[in-house]
From TrEMBL:
It comes from the Bacteria. PROSITE patterns: PROKAR_LIPOPROTEIN. This is Uncharacterized protein. Keywords: Signal. It comes from Desmospora profundinema. Residues 1-21 form the signal peptide.
């Protein structure tokens, strides 16, 4: 008789535990979905002139005021942009304010991007000495971010 009650109690606990998600990873899966896409790291350095090269040359994070440089990033796990436009923000970390926002056209099936900064006249206060952060957005999803420094 005791074995019957014990067996019934175990069965009830198993059914209740399964129903409330005690024995599943649904909560972990939901947390991963809420976080959105994985954020890539932006690399800074010299612009790769070869059309098929998407690796920054002479990688570094410090640049002179009159120096041209490039940013490069790749989507994680060969994901695609799934959009025709990316928004790039340049943020002054010292004042925590957005200095510049640019919309760049991309192909939805691409998964990597490179861009050269070569003309300080196109940027509003960006080529001043200081600490900067760059963020790349697809709508509300942050795709990539990185930091760099402009020095004298």
């Amino acid at each position: 008789m005791k074995k019957g009650w014990l067996l019934a109690l175990c069965a009830v606990l198993l059914i209740v535990g399964t129903g409330c998600g005690m024995f599943s990873d649904k909560e972990a899966d939901a947390d991963a979905e809420e976080k959105g896409p994985q954020v890539s790291k932006i690399e800074f350095g010299d612009y790769p002139r070869d059309e098929g090269n998407f690796e920054a040359l002479n990688r570094r994070k410090h640049f002179g005021k009159d120096e041209s440089f490039a940013m490069v990033f790749h989507m994680p796990k060969e994901q695609q942009f799934d959009t025709t436009r990316l928004k790039i923000q340049i943020i002054n970390k010292d004042g925590d304010r957005v200095l510049q926002e640019m919309i760049q056209e991309v192909k939805p099936d691409e998964n990597k991007y490179k861009w050269e900064f070569s003309n300080s006249y196109e940027f509003h206060g960006f080529y001043e000495t200081g600490n900067y952060e760059m963020k790349v957005w697809r709508g509300e999803d942050l795709l990539a971010e990185g930091e760099f420094v402009i020095t004298d």
